[in-house]
Task: structure prediction
Amino acid sequence: MAGVELRGLSKNFGAVKVLHDVSVEIADGEFAVLLGPSGCGKTTLLRLIAGLETMTEGEIRIDDQRIDQLQPGQRGIAMVFQSYALYPHMSVRANLAYGLKNVGTPKDVIEERIRTAASILEIEPLLERKPAQLSGGQRQRVAIGRAITKSPKVFLFDEPLSNLDASLRARTRVEISKLHQRLGATMIFVTHDQIEAMTMATKIVVMHAGRVEQVGAPLDVYRRPATRFVAAFIGTPQMNFVPVSGAKAAGGWMVPTLADGTSIDARIAREALGEVAPVEIGFRPDEVEIDAAGPLQVEVDVVERLGDRTLVYAHLADGTALIYQDHSESTVRLGDRVGLRPLPHKLIAFDAEGKAYHPGEPG
Amino acid sequence: MTTIAETAERAGTAIRKNQRPRRQWIGLLFVAPFVALYLWLMIYPLVTGVVMSFQYQDLLSGVTEFVGWWNYEDLFADPIFIGSIFNTLRFVLLTVPPFVIIGLLIALALNRPTRGAAIMRALFFGPHVLSVTVVTLIWKTVYLPNVGMIDAGAAAMGLEPVSVLLNPDWALAAVGLVTVWWAIGLPMMLFLAALQQVPDDIYEAAKLDSAGPTRILFTITIPSIAKMIVLVAVIEVVLQFQVFGQINLLTGGGPNNTTRTMVMFIYQAGFQQWQAGYAAAASQILFLIMLVAAGLQFWVSRKRGEA
Result:
């Protein structure tokens, strides 16, 4: 098992630069998820690691050895494709054995590896079938099995769950997490689904427009997003953003003010911002207190009663849309006027560049 | 007392009973035009051909007479006909393997999205749109004794003229070369179509599985297009068994009957000697041989698929 180190990776497709100076370190045994919207470069990054694309600049190391000059088969990696990419003319057994045969693995070792992988994934009864005779979920298992038999240093997954139906996806998510614990292998998993990222990852790499926005543990990324993009991308429903016209200082804290002059309590150190003025504040729908005298006065547009809680879609007088969470017994109705007070110790501020400022010690 | 459900069910059965035969008739009505055309244009001539093969038919005098197996007995006693069977088989063996192998190699070489590959594809397919007359005219200038490209080249190097079309050892191979040059475009296009159906990610998976280019060709590419290889082979066998135009125009069956194939024989029996019954009997034998050859190929490929 081994750690993966990406140093200053860039990739151009013709004149289009799809990856800008990406540097990430993934420790041995970590489950890293590359997360981002379509076209952010996450799959390209995975394919660079696999050796299926050549990079323009940079260095890739596995186990402290440079591998970016090696052929895909020599890099000590195995990949599970989005479409599974099973060899359609071969039986499941032959699919699992193919990679090992190609490097001259002895027959008994191949048999042993297939047996182990098949028992881990419970695909023993399928070994003699062809891929066309398998269901989507079974194919997925075989694709993972093909990766396991190779005992790679690093597993790469390219959105492997996107072709499964919702319930199977949830189940497979749990199984891949279990597999990670059982094998203790380094895994790199590409997805655009933040639920997959939050539930499986030990480290999330959030990508946007070919750049790494933030690297961190799932809850860190959720609680302390580094940028406005990360704050908006992670979390369902999305974080609320309210434009502010400036900020005052009070007792070392920054006090953002809305365009109409209303002040909002926050616990962001005034010093942290320096000369920078915040342009927006952000808070999650559940990080708000319902208070008739609150600084944010909203009118309710839509009420979603989810059983365990109520989601309320509303807007401020200037038209800014907000979502807040109310308890399940809430009697709020369409057209109601409600006062909201964002929890000061949760409130985040953003500057014009989108950089986030978090609550902390007063300065 | 009957319940509502029972009544409804009974009503349902009644409707079904009434509708089933009517629906069948409507279905038949829809296929009837096709069935009629099929019977008239395919089955009727086929049966007529079989009947004719048991008749003595002189097209000039109009005499028609049932003669039993006489035509067949005559055919198998005719050394020229037996020779034409072997010539046809030789021609099929000379041309079908190059069609499959060279067609596949060209397709593999040109299966890339470059402009150069597109131009080369057009060039290889080009001759296929020419008529047999044009093709043989082109190749006549190559094969012509003494003044053709080959003989002129041989003379320039101080060698004896070869006169390939007059040489019993070379004439059939020369016609085979013309045929492959002329018609290689179709196998190439069919193979290209099949190659483009193979998803890229399988090749990527194979690369990650440490397979080199040769191993990928034999374990991924060829098995993935196996059905097309069989199809091309069957199409070419059926086509080349019927070779006629280029032989008729290049050699006329000579020299010394070495290029006289079965369709040449049938043509001469039917349209030069006006022996329609005799020609029909030879056609039945050609039909049988083609059926056996194509069936054999299907059988072999299926066996291989099971293994």
Observations:
- Chain A is about 25% helix and 35% strand.
